[in-house]
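To close the chapter, one final illustration. This time we ask the reader to focus less on the individual chains and more on the assembly as a whole: which components sit near each other, and how the overall shape emerges from the parts.
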Amino acid sequence: MTSLESIQRDTAAAVTLATPHAPGTTAVRLTQVGRRFGDVVAVHDMTMDVPAGTVTVLLGPNGAGKSTTVRLMTGSIAADTGRVEVFGLDPIADGTAVRQRCGVVPPKPSLYLRMSGRDNLRYAAEIYGLGRRAAADFLIDEAADRFGIGHALAQKVDGYSTGMRTRLALARAVLHDPDLLLLDEPTAGLDPESARAVLGLIREMAVRGKTVVVCTHLLHEAEGLADQVVLVSRGTAVAAGPPHELARRLWPDCRLVLEAEQPARLDAVAAMDGVLAYHRNGVATADLDDPARIPELVRRLVDDGVRLTRVQPLQPTLEELYFALQRDGNDQPHPHDGPLVAAP
Amino acid sequence: MTRAMAVARADLRQVVRSRDFWIPIGIMAAMFFVVIPGFLLWIVTSADESGAIEQVTRALGALPKDITDSLEGSSASARAGYAFAVYLFGPVAVIVPLTVAAAVGANTIVGERERGTGEFLAHSPATEREIYLGKLVASLLPGYIVLLTGFAAYSLVVNLTVGGELGRWFFPTGRWWLLIFWVMPPCIAVALSMILRVSGVVKSAAAAQQASSLVTLPVIVVAYGAASGSMFSSTASVWMVGAAAWAVAGFGLVRGSHAVRRERLLGIDARG
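The assembled structure is written out below.
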């Protein structure tokens, strides 16, 4: 069994076990879901759980199947194979009930340019059953002010900047206070202020116990935001879990960064017990078979008279994990020997 | 139903604010309902009993007997004006509301796709039937409003020009009331049922416009025939033509409700 197959087999279970939510509070569950468009396989054997009340980041390159996955979740497209459940409901059979509880921000804001910002929000209010009365207007003003576009509601959206359009799309998505917020590349092409508004919304929704699914190919966006990350490649969830858990599973070795006043003297580390790999290029990095070896390694260097200026155990970044998985998916050699995922 | 009306209102709001749509439509309506008939009726009714009027009188003789028998007026110019007003210009003007309905309807579904707004509707709780109904109402109303206002203006023009010759305001005639309120609405609906299906299938608004012009052609012929009196000769037959049109419209609209598919709103070709 390849490491990729091993990951796919373990993904759903690992995600569920890794989150603090008990089974039964899963907001979204995809079980062996497949979807083709003609000859193109968009999603293949996709299995993943999104626990309720968490922020899940679908991370993958363009064309990996992230947007199709979101569309499957809202029932706007049907799966060819497998099963999709959202709040325990089938998004195709119970589409209205599911979509009523979802707020979606698509990659392009999907706004009516000839209408004003307020009319766009009024339209959404009517579609989501908030009515046309003062209560809906109150919610509209509140949502618009929350994203800093209250002053522009009377203007035609045609005259909005890209950032303002995204803010309006965000306001529209949360107008009906959805239980599940689906954001597809929400910060693409945004100025820093608008991008911050998006990330702020995600954090706010998470604090309020809402479930958020974010599709992105921007690694820095996922880092620090996600309760769990689902790495999507070629239409399949190749790995999933909380970022630190993923790091532990996918990068089981301990990497240590060392710096010293006389860097060349660090080369002695290469011959020490438990050092799997050593490399020095400015700073020295050593991959250890066990983090417990760090104190002994440091003691020996100090005893040898090496004046250390930096000793830092390094957690791999999401970026490193991501590219490691991409390499694995492409059947290219991985920088580490052995499987990507530690045996469960 | 609330969501369907929301869709209709949103579409109508955009149509109303689209000046690049209304200006050419307004010019066309003014030409067909006011300018051309007004000018020609003025010429016919103000000409003396020679030359052109004699030719027109001969031409009127070639019309079906039911029509020639129904012509009012004591003078040749009055009878010619009556024939032009009731049987020639009016039916031609029927093209205008159909064109408006076709223009709005052709864009309505494929336009959501082209503008990217279909994604909002696809993810919304509105059912496909609600979206279709909303689109239908939004396409139907502009055409029908143009029909009503256009014929109100046309009636005024006809009564001011030909009515003076007859000594009374006579338009709309009884059959025209029936045509406007009984025959034309289902004719527009039949056209729309086909146009919305086209709009749901094609890949661009331009293609939808092209296809819709073909779709409306037979409907225009039917409407023209019905309006001109060549397809029926009595008031009872107007009722029957209308009833048949309603039946066809009902069938077409029910069948046409499949035009809206979420996947198509997202720009995904249903054929894969």
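Chain B has one domain: 2-265. The mean pLDDT of chain B is 82. With these observations in hand, you are ready for the problems at the end of the chapter.
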